[in-house]
Amino acid sequence: MTHEMTSFVNFQIGKLYFYYTKNIELARHHLEQAYHGMKEAGAEYTKYRVEIACSIAEVYMQLKIFEPVKQLLRKESAHSRDFPLIHARLLFLLAVLLSFFSVSVFFFRFSFFF
């Protein structure tokens, strides 16, 4: 099996674990393997790499690990502009992530008054 095919299989397995089981750590593992495989595969697989990055972002947001997600989405946003649907998904994920940061900063600032 080729390296690209292995990455596609890891992507599909990661999605299956994320959407249909409670084993989120295994989903994260497979999605990260797929992402690194697509990154090594080159520019012709950019669309799939950005789609995998969005799935990784969803996993990390469910685990409440936000800083790596912010970096990943910002890095991939430059490459996603050629694919409008994936770009919109990425921007919505980034907006949700940034809104969480602004809400947590809001509560942190006003927690001193109570």
Question: Could you describe the 3D structure shown?
Answer:
- InterPro entries: MAU2 (IPR019440).
- By secondary structure, the protein is mostly helical.
- The chain has one domain (3-113): Serine Threonine Protein Phosphatase 5, Tetratricopeptide repeat (Alpha Horseshoe), CATH 1.25.40.10.
- 80% of the residues lie in helices and 0% in strands.
- The protein has five helices and no strands.
- The protein has helices at residues 3-20, 24-41, 46-62, 67-77, 84-110.
- Helix 1 (3-20) packs antiparallel against helix 2.
- Mean pLDDT is 88; it is low at 105-114.
Concise account of the structure shown:
The protein has 114 residues and is mainly alpha-helical. It has five helices and no strands.
Task: Explain the layout of strands and helices.
Elements: H1 3-20, H2 24-41, H3 46-62, H4 67-77, H5 84-110
Helix pairs in contact: 1-2, 2-3, 3-4, 3-5, 4-5
